[in-house]
Amino acid sequence: MIEIKNLTKFFGPKKAVNNVSFELKKGEVLGFLGPNGAGKSTTMRMITGFIPPTSGTAIIGGVDITKSPIEALQKIGYLPENAPVYPEMTARSFLEFCAEVRGFSGVEKNKRIDETIEKCFLKDVIYQSVSTLSKGFKQRVCFAQSILHDPDYLIMDEPTDGLDPNQKHEVRSMIREMGINKAIILSTHILEEVDAVCTRAMIIANGHVVANDKPEQLRARSGLHGAVRLTLQNAELEAVKNSFNVLPGVKEIEVLDDRQKLNLRIYPESLTVPLADKVLKCATDNSYQIESIYTEQGRLDEVFRMITEVGEARSRLDRMVKH
Amino acid sequence: MPRTLRNTKIIMLRELTGYFGSPVAYVFIVIFLMLIGFFTFSVSHFYEAGQADLRSHFEWYPWLFLFLVPSVAMRLWADEKRVGTIELIMTLPISLTEVILGKFLAAWIFIGIAQVLTFPLVLSTMYLGNPDFGTIFCAYVGSFLMGGAYLSVGSMTSAITRSQVVSFILAVVACLFMVLSGWPPVTEALIGWAPTWLVNLVASFSFMTHYQSIQRGVLDFRDIFYYLSFIFFMLYTNGIILLTRKS
């Protein structure tokens, strides 16, 4: 288990991370979300002991990173931001170096390296020097380094940054697979990634944790959540509006498009009563031609914008209180 | 093998292969050998002196190392910071001491290799006369130790900055100071007005003073101790700088 206890970091007078606490069990994949400069990387650097926290600590598998860093680091695999790798080394010799530092030697070392190379699709480039590799391969070499020793805890700063869509897909399925028996923290600003791999999402803005929830619950915070999207052919706007407005449970009707087809978003009064079947029934009763109908899940990017703006406001308030 | 030793060795070997994997190593060795040859033969007139010793060779080390050693040391930490690999190496399960030592030893061995490649000079003196091998051996040990001291300064200044140029300049200035404080023209200028103990104190801190006695063939324990403790002090400072720079 990873326990983060009141992590706080000041850079000079600037508070980069403010009292972040959470726990992460094995089998969970936590996604750090947040605008640039929100404190995601700083938090991860403190968890991995690269930056000492101003106060608070991280306990990794029962070992305090600030007290016995080496023991704690043995349990961690870390992929730093921008995936740094020694440019003059070949991919293979770099992985050998990392394996040796992790205490592997002989047959075991070679077995681990071969397995990792296989897993990360590095076979074609292992004898190439890293400086000649493309960004995607470099990223994967560094990724390979982080999973080489099969750690219980994985911390990855933007693991899919710079990868093409196919590679992103591969890396994500790897993370999902590893997430079954590891505790993984990753940061990203690609929201679809959170949906794809994370069991929990944490939004950080200005060093504050402003949300910590399952992705689907976060999405439910969206104003669009539960609204019914409806596309009708050859229907007359006013008539449609009138017939839906009288339905019980309809709060508001938003017209998205009324040029050729009628595209509506119907907001429910409460989320507990499903609206779709009523809308559907009403539409068939009036014999409107339905092209499509679905209930919106809410959009993460909308929630993200909403929540981070709250975070901004909160830190502005903090500053005002201080002065 | 104890952990510390093993880890230091792993870091050291990685660094050494790093040197020889890039053109830096070859450029350095070629320039070093060309310059030392030029000074020994053309400036100090090795042949014309008609003596079967290597004094004309070893007297140039303090000056040549002044520029060449910082050029080896400047990349030690500055480059790790620039490329970002410092974040990688600091989050591997190894201690800072092991990393500092491993890096330092690799660079030191590298300088040692460059020095060993001056062996044709020894062969020449053997061919031309009967040199005192004890003195030559002492001079090699002394110049190697002095190279280590230069290197420790360079390693320390390299930790301060992410720019190799800044690191190089700082190291050259610091080393110049360490050399000049024992250089006869400077000590003589001091003798005129300063009390003897002060002159001795300043001079005893200098690379030059300790180098000259070793070079003459006197391998005194105090000189060796001076260099080793100087290196230790510099690397310790190096560690403290890295720790404070982290936060």
Provide the β-strand percentage band of chain B: under 5%
Helix content, binned percent of chain B: over 70%
CATH superfamily of the largest domain in chain A: P-loop containing nucleotide triphosphate hydrolases
Structural class given helices, strands, pairing of chain A?
alpha/beta
Element-level helix/strand string of chain A: EEEHEEHEHHHEHEHEEHEHEEHEH
Query: Nearest-angstrom radius of gyration of chain B?
Result: 19 Å
Total helices of chain B: the number is 15
**E-strand count of chain A:** 14
CATH class annotation of the largest domain in chain A: Alpha Beta
The total tally of domains of chain A equals 2
Architecture per CATH nomenclature, i.e. the level-2 architecture of the largest domain in chain A? 3-Layer(aba) Sandwich
Helical content of chain A stands at 25-40%
What CATH calls the topology of the largest domain in chain A is Rossmann fold
Radius of gyration based on Cα positions of chain A: 25 Å
Number of spatially distinct domains of chain B: 1
Biggest interface between protein chains, with counts per chain?
A-B, 31 and 22 residues
In this structure, how is the largest beta sheet of chain A organized?
Answer: 6 strands, mixed
The number of distinct β-strands of chain B equals 0
- Provide the residue-averaged pLDDT of chain B: 89
Give the N-terminus to C-terminus distance of chain B in angstroms.
33 Å
What is the topological layout?
The complex is a heterodimer of chains A (323) and B (247).
Chain A: E1 2-11, E2 14-24, E3 29-33, H1 40-47, E4 55-60, E5 63-64, H2 69-74, E6 76-79, H3 91-101, H4 106-119, H5 135-147, E7 153-157, H6 165-178, E8 183-187, H7 191-197, E9 200-205, E10 208-213, H8 215-220, E11 228-233, H9 237-245, E12 250-257, E13 261-268, H10 276-285, E14 289-295, H11 300-322
Parallel strand pairs in A: 3-8, 3-9, 6-7, 7-8
Antiparallel strand pairs in A: 1-2, 1-4, 4-5, 9-10, 11-13, 11-14, 12-13
Helix pairs in contact in A: 3-4
Chain B: H1 3-21, H2 23-43, H3 46-49, H4 55-58, H5 61-73, H6 75-83, H7 85-90, H8 96-116, H9 119-128, H10 133-160, H11 164-180, H12 184-191, H13 196-204, H14 207-215, H15 221-246
Helix pairs in contact in B: 1-8, 2-5, 2-8, 5-10, 5-11, 6-10, 8-10, 10-11, 10-14, 10-15, 14-15
